[in-house]
């Protein structure tokens, strides 16, 4: 009776029966609401009435109460309608609003739904027809509807856009403002005008308890009610259970045993997984189908996605709760597979496939997905595992970039697992997929040359990671790849295929892979060469990954640490990209840490890191300083604490030792590092003392090197040990030149801190050395510099007096000695070359410090060395110098080359202090550059003149052409030296880009020495172009004139040049065409889009228009200029970058929303630019091109080919705009289009001729042997056979009579072109001219300008039957060449032209169809007189039609 009393609370008996029937009739969808009075009575006590009904119904649904009376009998005995119960319950949970429902409404809805589900769990519900799909599905949705919206919003905020909306390589869009996002989330649905309800924690707890009760009731129902015939209900259950798994955080790990009672479960995720497990039982339908539904829903949890029922699910932020839900889902799938065994393997394979296919391109999600795949793959036996790996191998070759990247992640995750044992039952083909060798060689290394930069870089990164794994198999597999004996990988090259995945996004079915084509694999011997190419890849990320891979290969000694391999890392420290430079520095650091004892690695480290301290990018500079500090400075300890066993200390001193010896050329960069460190106050007193403690130990040279860098910025210290070392060096002189210079540098730096006695003692020592002339030249200049440091005083006069005294004494000694050698009669008998050189060099160094002590006699002495050994005096006996000096250009010198070379250096130093002397010597220097045969002399003269340019800029400016002429010197050393010094002068703006300097400079881009060419590129792009961004565009047009030596233009190429200079820098002629194109391409590559746009117009107006306006003649020189111009206009480098920005489309995802948006923006941008460029073409380019085409056709110019090539390129870029280009003249557009088609066919013919092979046997009886080249099935030349069975002759060979044998076409050498018999092209060209002449005779107004403008024929071939049967339907009783009224392309009729080599022009049916067929004579026969054709001009027809 309790049940009846509880039902009375629901007013079941008072409910109108008509209303109940109406609700059932309308299938619970659109019925009238319950009477308001009845509803008020039911809800008066809240949800208590529904709880009471639930408690009373519960015993009837449990097995323990199976002996009780049937509930349906109770209903019948008490006159209670089951339909009324269901109708009343449904009223309270059907209309609940997810946003505006109050706490009471939500609780009532949940308990009403629980009561309805409990009714379904009572035996006999089927007979009483209690189940209704709408009500069942609504009860399932109550969980989401009644759950508080603020908690749902929290989960929504965790959802983020798919990573495909933020593809790699693009700037991320600005994040949406928080308030805007909340506004979007909080926007009410249409009709929901009431305020949203907010709940306290106690309210939320009540809702949760009611929700748990509802879910538990649902689980009881699933154990009782089979859903075998209700697939939609199964799907809805799976969906709601999947969503419940993430409603609450999981504490600990869940267990999935069958023995656990539902009543003991307390969390919603625990209940949800129990429900998913129940759905997998056979009770609810086909086991595989139910399993498919469950795993389909868990798929999105594993992928960390929300809204799995949507076509484009959104991603969730990988928070700890999301990661825990993912891990729990993976464990649940593993548990199901362990329980159901073999039956679940096909569905598990489908799950794995969909994880792969629906993966997004974000690192954290890919990593998580790869780990999920590996964990689930572990549940597969070997056969299934190998089968899936075969599928994954095909998946890794799919056109989608994200698939190929994710396949690499899976391969790396699998490599971290132990390798599976080989299964004897597997075939060899499948067994190969179990090996780690397959993963390394095919899955990872096989993607090294992928067309997408993202995949290439990731593959190389994975290759580096393979070497860091604990697995020895992976390392051995890589070693095998780079082994000289390696010949093949695990799989044959023929199995490497690009594949296409065929799938439907929302169908959880097996994903098939179809082959797209073979991908060839490279020879194993080229692995290292390919890796080097990847280091120079255009994409920054690829270069970084390649550097990491190369470092790992070197680190683990897979490839030898040779200078060639290590130089790759060092060179990349100067990469254009900042990130690549930093990566190269880090790789060198890692490699040095791994192999600190390798001298080759140490040298490579120095070559890469030390020069980086002069980098313009601050971050690179800081990285280099950090590496040097960590490796060298931080390891310098006191000598007493030095231990040779300490690897780091030993490494630091080894590196410093290399800087003192083999790598001393890096010292100037090393100095910059110490300048930067001094600003940071890194050199403390303890550091200096530690250095000083090594000056007399085994590391003395290295210690002096560092002291020479830090002494100038060090604090005042006790330098007694340094002075003791100086005294020891003075006594023994047993140090190297490099160390001697370092010691002198230290003495000069500490000179201000020394007392006068010590200074005087050191000055005496230095003067003693200088006057002995026994010191090396490097030490002489350093000694003079130290003299200046020691004599420097507060007053400039005192300093100069000191220098005049000491340096003047040295100058006097040098003058006396040189006079004794040059002016005395027996001087040459005592001539000592080494001593003369030292005196000359010392004289130059000392003279710079005391110019007042240098007399005119010294000038004459030095100049006489350059001229001859004859005594020189002034002409009139006075002290004044003659206006010119008889140097080597007037009389050969008897002095050795080394003496003359040093004499030029000394004379240059004298000129720096005496302007008058410089003015007199500059002409002699310039003449010496032209006539001297001595390399050392020319080199030193270039150095002197460039130094004088800094001192006397205006004076030397006129000699810049003489200096730049050395850029084409026969010696690479002089070319390189000149290039460097001119770059320095241009950087400091001592020299301007005047005259021919620019063109001579850029001509070094094609220098025969690759090293010099690369240096020129660096100087132009990284040093000079930054200072003058319009430099290339300003000189580009004149480059075309200059490199073709064209001087007939009134403006361009008019600067003066000597004949020898013109010849030396000339790039004219076909032999230098490639060099000119290389220069043009280089310049255009560094144009901006604005400059590219403008240069096209300038070329048309300044070059092409000059020929059209007859300003320039169309002669041989003009043809060469035009040929280069059209080649330049056809280059891809001249195209706007925005017009071909879709080259990286393969790196974008097809279903990527943001990528699609970016693509739309690019298309719009491209369209806008295209419109502007189209207007420019129509107004400025096309008229000039067409006019020039007519002129070239009249003159039969060979340049017409290049013009047609340019038009072909232009029409390919603007194929859709051709009608707009020629909108004013359709006939011209038609003619031009046909000319292009004919030109393309001629190009194809030439390619066929070039590829045609010469017959093995000689021709018989002098006949020419020819045949049609064999065509492959995919060849463009293949054509179907006609119905008559006679094969159609190819248009690429000489046509033969019908029925004649096929013959090879033998190519002729160019020299015999004139004696060669006419080819098919020539025959057809002759026919074209004949028809054209006939047409012009019938034209009322003849025009010679258009004689060759409209080609009317093209080669074609037909079977013999077409010539003899005379089909009137195909030819319409008119001449074949007569145009139709609406003809858009003038041509011979397809399949109706017969080309026969008979002696007569008549056929068997001549009397009937003679006017319908065009006959041409054989090339072997003489040409007959032209016949009159019935040809009428289409223009006349058009005019007649208008009349």
Automatic annotation (TrEMBL):
Spell out the Pfam families in the cross-references.
Cnd1, PDS5
Q: Where is this region: Disordered?
A: 154-195, 1254-1321, 1340-1361, 1399-1443
Looking at the record, the residues that make up the Condensin complex subunit 1 C-terminal domain are 937-1112
Q: Which domain of life is it from?
A: Eukaryota
Q: Which UniProt keywords apply?
A: Cell cycle, Cell division, DNA condensation, Mitosis, Nucleus
Output the Gene Ontology terms for molecular function.
histone binding
Recorded GO cellular component terms are: condensed chromosome, centromeric region; condensin complex; nucleus
Question: Which subcellular locations apply to this protein?
Answer: Nucleus
User: Which stretches does UniProt call biased (Acidic residues)?
Assistant: 181-195
> What are the Polar residues biased-composition ranges?
1264-1279, 1341-1353
- On whether Transferase is a keyword of this UniProt record, the answer is no
Show the ranges annotated as biased composition (Basic and acidic residues).
Answer: 1401-1411
**What's a single GO BP term from this record?**
mitotic chromosome condensation
Asked if the keyword Protein transport belongs to this entry, the reply reads no
Tell me, what does this protein do in biology?
Regulatory subunit of the condensin-2 complex, a complex which establishes mitotic chromosome architecture and is involved in physical rigidity of the chromatid axis.
How is this protein organized at the quaternary level?
A: Component of the condensin-2 complex.
Name the record gives this protein: Condensin-2 complex subunit D3
What high-level taxonomic lineage is stated for the organism?
A: Eukaryota, Metazoa, Chordata, Craniata, Vertebrata
